[in-house]
């Protein structure tokens, strides 16, 4: 079986107009949500063989908080520039090219791609993956090349507002 935990970055700050979109940091809510969600998934038994992240500051910082909660060194995060501003098919190509020795990955990216991907795997409609939302997709396949919207199914979906008011 192959499993991908797709994560949208935590809430970012718009307080620094001089920063580019790529450089935007997390805001206070994002700094609360990212460690919480990482610990939540760790408590649910999630353990990735690989963490892949967009190198944008908000996505990479989110990935680093998750890595820490999962007992993985931040230096082990694989930064993929192609995830920033990616189309869903770009992300699927990246996943399908992974080594088959890996079973579980976490992938940190951005909307609208995360919501579009969720809807490729979901039996229902998801209007929006909120910031720091994470959805799990499982596929009963032996090779990443066979990981598609036909073989994968969204099996879990978590986001901070389920746990905070």
Automatic annotation (TrEMBL):
CDD domains per the UniProt record, alphabetical: HP_PGM_like
UniProt-listed Gene3D superfamilies: Phosphoglycerate mutase-like
Cited InterPro entries: His_Pase_superF_clade-1 (IPR013078), His_PPase_superfam (IPR029033)
Protein name: Phosphohistidine phosphatase
